[in-house]
Design goal:
With 274 residues, the protein is α/β, with parallel strands linked by helices. It has two domains: 17-233, NAD(P)-binding Rossmann-like Domain (Rossmann fold), CATH 3.40.50.720; 234-260, no CATH class. The chain is built from eight helices and six strands. The protein has helices at residues 29-39, 50-61, 97-100, 113-124, 149-170, 199-221, 244-254, 265-273, and strands spanning 17-21, 43-49, 79-85, 127-132, 174-183, 224-228. β4 (127-132), α5 and β5 form a beta-alpha-beta unit. α1 (29-39) packs across α8 (265-273), α4 (113-124) packs parallel to α5 and α5 (149-170) packs parallel to α6. The longest helix has 23 residues, at 199-221. Keywords: Fatty acid biosynthesis, Fatty acid metabolism, Lipid biosynthesis, Lipid metabolism, NAD, Oxidoreductase. InterPro entries: Enoyl-ACP_Rdtase_NADH, NAD(P)-bd_dom_sf, SDR_fam. It holds the Pfam family adh_short_C2. Homotetramer.
Length: 274
């Protein structure tokens, strides 16, 4: 039994602080990982895509997530702070004028990766756990043969390089012995028809980068770097693919153990930390 009273590995993260990048609602792996870490005692910070920030904070404040915030001991997951984040941009100098002028970004500041890391440092000093739950491919519905260079590079930028950027900027404020985790998908190694727009390439890059980063961050900061492939989940972001339900059904029909996939706490937590 864990410290939280749930079945699983006896993980005690009291006194640890986690930053989860890519939480914009209560229906996804990022949220589930945040809950798992909170149940183990960690302090939770989240980074939310800037255009979704207002809706997320409003829903959180009005109690719309209270049911899904419940932890095994009956308490509610507390999010210490929500940061605006757009991990496509490393620093303010990278932000194009049209994004700066976009009304969806109005009212928010310090949301590039470098700025968020600096703000977290100023607010809390250090973190122990970094979670990358980010992916986006603007042309994901396009076959690879019909994907533009711009769409392909955008998928790689948002879905794989963003992990490099996060680790690059957060590593200096991570305590030795800390851990990072990202989320990949089996399309990195097998053909998944319909999962296009360069997303399969982005996931393959993410996995390759993980191996290199594990060496570099391990030697430089004694930080563990891992990625997990948990399978298709019908999150709001995944619905952009257009046929996520068919992917879930196929996974269920062909899995050795036919169980409906859910963003389970202990499974993801154990993979994240060990």
């Amino acid at each position: 039994m864990s410290q939280s009273g749930t079945q699983g590995l006896p993980i005690d993260l009291r006194g640890k602080r986690a930053f989860i990048a890519g939480v914009a609602d209560d229906n996804g792996y990022g949220w589930a990982i945040a809950k798992a870490l909170a149940a183990a005692g960690a302090e939770i910070l989240v980074g939310t895509w800037v255009p979704a920030l207002n809706i997320f904070e409003t829903s959180l404040r009005r109690g719309k997530f209270d049911e899904s915030r419940k932890l095994p001991d009956g308490s509610l997951m507390e999010i210490t702070k929500v940061y605006p984040l757009d991990a496509v941009f490393d620093s303010p100098e990278d932000v194009p004028d049209d994004v700066k002028a976009n009304k969806r970004y109005a009212g928010s500041s310090n949301w590039t990766v470098k700025e968020v890391a600096e703000t977290v440092k100023n607010d809390f000093g250090t973190i122990d756990i970094l979670v990358h739950s980010l992916a986006n491919g603007p042309e994901v519905k396009n076959p690879l043969l019909e994907t533009s260079r711009k769409g392909y590079l955008a998928a790689v930028s948002a879905s794989s390089y963003s992990f490099i950027s996060l680790l690059q900027h957060f590593l200096p404020i991570m305590n030795p012995g800390g851990a990072t985790i990202s989320l990949t998908y089996i399309a990195s190694e097998r053909t998944i028809p319909g999962y296009g727009g360069g997303m399969s390439s982005a996931k393959a890059a993410l996995e390759s980068d993980t191996r290199v980063l594990a060496y570099e961050a391990g030697r430089k900061g004694k930080i563990r770097v891992n990625t997990i492939s948990a399978g298709p989940l019908g999150s709001r972001a995944a619905k952009a693919i257009g046929f996520i339900e068919k992917m879930i059904e196929y996974s269920y029909v062909n899995a050795p153990l036919q169980k409906e996939l859910w963003a389970g706490r202990n499974y993801l937590l154990s993979l994240c930390l060990h």
